[in-house]
Amino acid sequence: MTRVDFYVLDAQAGQAREVFACRLAEKVWRLRHRVYLHAGSKEAARQVDELLWTFRDGSFVPHALDADDLDEGTAERTPVRIGAETEPHFEAQLLINLGRQVPLFFSRFDRVAEIVAGDDDDKAAARERFRFYRDRGYTVETHQIGTPRG
Fold first, then answer.
1. Entry pTM
2. Which run of H or of E encompasses 96?
3. Mean pLDDT of the chain
4. Residue 13 pLDDT
5. From CA 114, how far away is CA 89, in angstroms rounded?
6. CB under 8 A, 24+ apart: contacts of 42-50
7. Which distant-in-sequence residues (6+ apart) come within 8 Å of 113 by Cβ?
8. Is residue 149's pLDDT more than 80?
9. Which residues, at least 6 apart from 38, have a Cβ–Cβ distance to it below 8 Å?
10. What confidence tier does 11 reach under pLDDT thresholds 50, 70, 90?
């Protein structure tokens, strides 16, 4: 059964959720797992795609926007994909959800990471997602994440 982890951030500003998602994707990729970042819209997916190049000096995360027309060679070499609005076109161990709703395909993954910013609107949407998982019998863990220092 899929394991669900909620990462509750202290930070509210700017792209805190997206930056944390990039850090998590990098960590999981370094463990040789495949990752799907699910954004709330195609525009948000493009923004995450750009952020994966710049979120941290010296980082490199092989990634691409997920699409059914991704050529086979690129698809094979790309363990981190970003998408929105549709099911992913590949198999991955981790789903990082940046959308406001639970993706209908979440149970395809071994793990789901739900990232929650410190603002009230994001917390309210996250509570709904938490109830969704819990009411269906999924194991849900919550992790409080402080603001990184220097």
1. 0.93
2. strand 94-97
3. 92
4. 64
5. 20
6. 42/84, 42/85, 44/84, 44/98, 45/82, 45/83, 45/84, 47/15, 47/18, 48/18, 48/21, 48/22, 48/82, 48/98, 49/82
7. 5, 7, 21, 24, 94, 95, 96, 97
8. no
9. 83, 84, 88, 95, 96, 97, 98, 99, 103
10. confident
Per-residue model confidence as pLDDT tens digits over 70-123: 888 888 889 999 999 999 988 999 999 999 999 999 999 999 999 999 788 899
Give the amino acid at 111. Answer: R
Alpha helices for the chain (secondary structure H): 16-30, 42-54, 72-76, 120-135
Tell me what pLDDT residue 10 has: 87
Identity of the residue numbered 55: F
Distances (CA, A) of 136 to 15, 23, 72, 107, 133: 30, 29, 36, 11, 5
Distance between CA atoms of residues 138 and 150, nearest Å: 36
**What letter represents residue 86's amino acid?**
T
